[in-house]
Amino acid sequence: MSGAEWFERFVVWQMEEGKWIVLSLDSTRGKPKQYCVTTNGYRLLCNCPHWLKKGVEDPNFVCKHIVAVMQVLGTQTEVVKRTKTAKLEDRIKKLEERIEALEVDVSYAINPANYS
Ligand SMILES: [Zn+2]
Questions:
Q1: Which of 4, 8, 14, 107 is spaced 20 to 30 A from 75 at the CA atom?
Q2: DSSP string, the chain
């Protein structure tokens, strides 16, 4: 480890049970990219290119979006749970209000390039 710490901010929205939208706020390559993290009951899955390349075959692989969701689940369980039953229109409004509350910082142990 070089000692350098890398942080990237994400917004995590729980759209429904077992489904989250993850938006990067610190994209340096154009506009923020949005990915969908879901669960199949025993692990989290992502639809980003990196996860599709590695995560499909490696059950232990987690991309940065999954890390962000795990972080939210670990620290913001109450907030995330409350979005679950909201109706769609309400949900969007409430999610907008909660963007700040759901922001998470993900620190990378080694290098962000390994997670993107
Ligand atoms: Zn991902």
A1: 4
A2: --S--EEEEEEEEEEETTEEEEEES--SSSSPPEEEEEE-SSSEEE-SHHHHHHTTT-TT---HHHHHHHHHHHH-HHHHHHTTT--HHHHHHHHHHHHHHHEEEEEESS-GGGT-
pTM: 0.59
Confidence class of residue 111 from pLDDT cuts 50, 70 and 90? low
How far away, in angstroms, is 46 Cα from ligand 1 center? 5
Q: State residue 79's pLDDT score.
A: 42
Q: How far is the CA of 1 from the centre of ligand 1 (A)?
A: 23
